[in-house]
Amino acid sequence: MEFNFNPNELILERIRAVEAYNPATDELIGRLTQIEEPVLETSATALDVVDAMGTPIHTFYNAQQGKFSGSSSLFSLDLAASQFGAEKVVATSDKKITMYASETITIGSDATVVLKHVPVGTAGAEIKYVKVINDNNTFGETFEVATAAGAGKFTLNAATKTITLPEGTTGRVFVNYAYESDNAVSITKTTDAIPEVQKLLIHAIFHDPCDANLVYAGIIVCPRAQLDPTAISLSLKSDGKHPFSYALKKPYCADSAKLFDILVSRD
């Protein structure tokens, strides 16, 4: 006799991936693969019906909604962009991104230093100031860009990435400047943008409790999920996590009141 697949108690090994999609086009927005402390919650507002003496007669539960939260073990640029309601801009050869460099460079015997990148900015003054670093690592004399090197002045040839200091200047200099890169990405946080509504696919791995070798595929489908922008915390430590929290709500204009589906398959 053939039995239909109808599991009940399962071992949840882990959430293996969280994928965010544009709900209108199904285009992938971002994917997380290192998920820690994932939690799926639901909530509702209770409204008690009482009699004249205040005795509860019945309770209605309204405004049901859900929440999916967790942390990524790795800092995610895609997640950060979604949390900020921003676009992740990827540089190309035609659309470069302005980056910033701070370099400490040893002055050559000819009183020149060569930068790592080609500086950009006002022509002839792409770098306005450089500072000498003293032997005790404090800042010394400040030099200002000019058309000719001299007392307190330096010249800059942006095309060759070369700074020329007054003759006899030795030691090291600190230089900060902007340059353009076609190997970069950027995310901009503004005060007038909020996270867009997304569709979530939360992929899980299950095992049969009676036979651990039996592995089942699970997925939680959330048709309407929005990242919570009220308290975004990005740890700037090497062992820090990247937390997130999605509010799950039903599609307001849809006939269905669905918050999410939990699907399990042995295929």
Automatic annotation (TrEMBL):
Highest taxon listed in the record's lineage: Bacteria
Name the record gives this protein: Uncharacterized protein
Organism for this UniProt entry: Diplocloster agilis
